[in-house]
Amino acid sequence: MQESAEELYELGQRCINLGNPKEALSYFTKVLNLEPTHNKALVKKGNVLGKIGKYSQAILLYEKALKKDSKDLLALLNKGLALHYLERYDEAINCYDMALLIKPNNVTALYNKASSLILKNNIQEGLEILKKVVRLDFSYKAKAKFDIDFEQIRHLTEFKKMI
Fold first, then answer.
1. Could you list the pLDDT tens digit for every one of the 163 residues in the chain?
2. 10 Å Cβ neighbour count for 101?
3. Per-domain boundaries in the chain
4. Is the distance from CB of 44 to CB of 30 less than 8 angstroms?
5. How far apart are CA 17 and CA 76, in angstroms?
6. 106: helix, coil or strand?
7. Is the pTM value of this prediction over 0.90?
């Protein structure tokens, strides 16, 4: 008996939960063979590809998902992150801005936007957004303290006061 797309998707999700990304990738591929526009499988497959450093491939999957649902928050955030890792900061920031139109105080989008801004040397705007993130969710204080993306601003008094 052949499994349905939803059953295959659930198996893929279970593999992710168990720390088996290669097997998850196989299941999400099977889902997409059955249903090429299965949004959750597109995003999850993109996520797995991103985790193994295949950012360009991941972006293509996120774009497919966003064609079907332009307000898919996870696709926007993950596409932004993949673009960030490819050092395409302006495009990443654009993804975060679109996510923030959907959910204005999304701390993940704000934090990632701050990170991209700082790496493209827009320090002041990045710090302002980072301050907002810490106000919204105190746990980001510790995350920012050790984030390699903020290496170039660790010496700044404003950053030290924040963390």
1. 678 999 999 999 999 999 999 999 999 999 999 999 999 999 999 999 999 999 999 999 999 999 999 999 999 999 999 999 999 999 999 999 999 999 999 999 999 999 999 999 999 999 999 999 999 999 999 999 999 999 999 999 999 998 8
2. 11
3. 105-163
4. no
5. 22
6. coil
7. yes
